[in-house]
Amino acid sequence: LMCHKKRKKDPPHKRTFIDLYNSKLAALASAAKPSNKNVVHGYGIVAERALRRGEEVLDPAAKFVSLPPKSSAIMAGNVIQCQDGGGGFFLLRDDTNGRAAPSFYLNEARDTCQPNVEWLIDRRGRESACLYWHIIRDIAKSEELLIVYDPDDR
Question: How many CB atoms are closer than 10 A to CB 53?
Fold first, then answer.
């Protein structure tokens, strides 16, 4: 019989980028996940737990780029342009590998649907930013998260 010592957790400053990225994805997954059940159309994002007004949920898979992506990506809805005056874009879907950030699945609040989420951009200098979902009203577990794609349409 062999005994294995439990490995101590590395201190936060020694964790790898992948470990940090995976922990951020896990935090997002505990808050909300893509689903095709009880959504406005197709796939959407559904709350895994109650989300409270004012809460901010990071989407670590949304990739910030400072240069404009190909126009085909913009036309396909795979990109959002930062509207905070700082420039830049977030890539929500990469057609080369078929992977999508969870933000790609946020459906638009239409007709009688009321938005309960808005995008929030956290700038990390000129060449970096993070995309958060800012909860603008309480969301019950299993409720779909809805956003307004173009704030000027409100």
Answer: 11
Buried-state track 1-16, b at ≥16 Cβ within 10 A, e below 16: eeeeeeeeeeeeeeee
Calpha distance 62→89 (Å, rounded): 10
Q: What is the pLDDT of residues 104-143, one digit of tens each?
A: 999 988 866 789 999 888 887 667 788 999 999 999 999 9
Q: What is the pTM of this model?
A: 0.78
Question: For residues 86 and 104, is the Cβ–Cβ distance under 8 A?
Answer: no
- The C-alpha atoms of residue 34 and residue 13 are separated, in whole angstroms, by 31
Residue 130 phi/psi, 5° resolution? Answer: -120, 145
Distance CA 93, CA 105 (A): 10
φ, ψ for residue 93, nearest 5 deg: -145, 140
Task: Report DSSP state, residue 29.
Answer: H
